[in-house]
Amino acid sequence: MFGLGPQEIILICIVILVLFGAKKIPDLMSGLGKGMREFKKASRDIESEINNATTDEKKTS
Fold first, then answer.
1. What's the whole-model pTM score?
2. Could you write out the DSSP letters of every residue in 1-61?
3. Are the CB atoms for 25 and 16 separated by under 8 Å?
4. CA distance 27 to 15
5. Angle at the Cα of 17 from the Cα atoms of 12 and 1, rounded to 5 degrees
6. Which one in 8, 14, 36, 58 has a CA-CA gap of 20 to 30 Å to 44?
7. Could you report the per-residue pLDDT of 1-57, keeping only the tens digit for each?
């Protein structure tokens, strides 16, 4: 995964735990999840608009 071994991943998790504390991590992950959902929704919306535009263009031709 991204060229990281298990030791590096564990070290990153420990650093995150120390920086944010155990109580803040659920809030942090919740915000990350919401951001990812919004990004995916925006991607689907844009793809849908592009598909609709190309379909409309074919109908008018």
1. 0.58
2. -TT--HHHHHHHHHHHHHHH-TTTHHHHHHHHHHHHHHHHHHHHHHHHHHHHHHHHHHHH-
3. yes
4. 17
5. 25
6. 58
7. 568 888 998 898 888 888 888 888 888 889 989 999 999 999 999 999 998 888 877
